[in-house]
Write a structure and sequence with these properties.
Number of strands: 7
Largest sheet: 7 strands, parallel
Strand order of the largest sheet: 1-2-3-4-5-6-7
Distance between the termini: 32 Å
CATH topology of the largest domain: TIM Barrel
Shape: globular
CATH superfamily of the largest domain: Aldolase class I
Strand content: 5-15%
Bound molecules: flavin mononucleotide
Number of helices: 13
């Protein structure tokens, strides 16, 4: 997830919590110049085992270039983002913007799969741009190309993150394609995770894992789990060691806390203080008060 599941987050999460088979990088923007920003290259250098880099781009030729470049670095799988709904992304024909014109989407995939020596290609997609009625046509297009796996978030672009994921659109795509179809969307607790694991080929967790870092272990959030303190301390220290100052580190960690706080009922007042913290000491004091106020 952009700005949140950084290499630092992935490393520290992996150290303290289990259950995740594979992490995905936030999207890496690739333009026609093929000049990647330093911030983007840090997503995949140094090489990270069990991590799939995700590319956000408007042209199949640029995607193929990036996929081969990443393969050269050791990545055997690369993911294409067909889901980002942000206006700044969509208007440039990237992310969910690629779902708007189905002819162009085919051209995109033709450009990709006419290349040799690609790594495995997976996609992360929504089920339409304007309407769920588009799921059928999208499924037909996806079925024509040799994807290793599809990750489907069954909302359309126009829904952004509103409403509930649509199980019918998910099924339409799942029934049409031959590769495994991974479910993504609104899995926030163990019981919905368990339900989806029974019926689906696999699960991608998003906000649910940010709210509850032990969710992939099939554990509902445990306020008393001693790993939480270590996890948060180490995130702080790791960010301090690579970022230019406390302000930037606090900005990063406050963003994570906008998700984590959902797991700490009745701590809204302390959360407000945490969000106003302007020094590391204030931030840590707030975290301590939130975490230890239940003991
Ligand atoms: C702040 C934010 C950043 C996101 N960044 C990405 C991204 O870089 N790549 C991606 O495929 N999805 C991204 N997503 C979408 C999530 O991966 C996921 O598809 C969506 O939140 C629904 O799943 P969830 O309910 O499990 O979170 C982002 C979502 C949010 C809220």
């Amino acid at each position: 997830m952009e700005g949140i599941t950084t290499p630092v987050y992935r490393k520290v999460h992996k150290k303290y919590f289990g259950g995740v088979d594979r992490y995905f990088s936030p999207f890496i923007v690739v333009t026609s110049t093929h000049n990647l920003k330093k911030r983007e290259t840090r997503e995949y250098i140094p090489f990270e085992k069990d991590m799939t880099p995700q590319i956000l781009t408007a042209a199949g030729t640029d995607f193929a270039w990036a996929a081969k470049m990443l393969k050269g670095l050791g990545y055997d799988e690369v993911n294409l983002n067909l889901g980002c709904p942000a206006a700044t992304v969509v208007t440039k024909g990237k992310g969910a913007g690629l779902l708007r014109n189905k002819e162009n989407l085919r051209v995109f995939f033709e450009d990709v799969f006419s290349e040799n020596d690609l790594p495995d290609i997976t996609i992360k997609t929504r089920c339409g741009f304007w309407s769920h009625d588009e799921a059928e046509e999208l499924a037909e297009i996806f079925a024509d190309y040799p994807f290793k796996e599809l990750i489907v978030h069954p909302r359309i672009r126009e829904e952004f993150y509103q409403g509930t994921p649509n199980p019918d659109s998910f099924k339409i795509i799942k029934n049409k394609v031959k590769c495994p179809v991974i479910y993504n969307g609104d899995i926030f607790d163990v019981s919905s995770l368990r339900d989806h694991l029974e019926t689906d080929d696999g699960i991608m967790l998003g906000r649910g894992l940010l709210r509850n870092p032990m969710l992939a272990e099939m554990k509902d959030f445990d306020i008393y789990d001693s790993r939480l303190q270590g996890f948060l301390n180490e995130l702080y220290d790791e960010y301090m060691s690579i970022m230019s100052g406390e302000r930037d580190v606090l900005f990063k960690l406050k963003e994570l806390w906008t998700y984590l706080i959902a797991s700490f009922p009745d701590r809204e007042d302390e959360f407000k203080r945490l969000m106003k913290a302007s020094t590391g000491a204030e931030y840590k004091a707030s975290v301590n008060r939130i975490i230890h106020s239940y003991t």
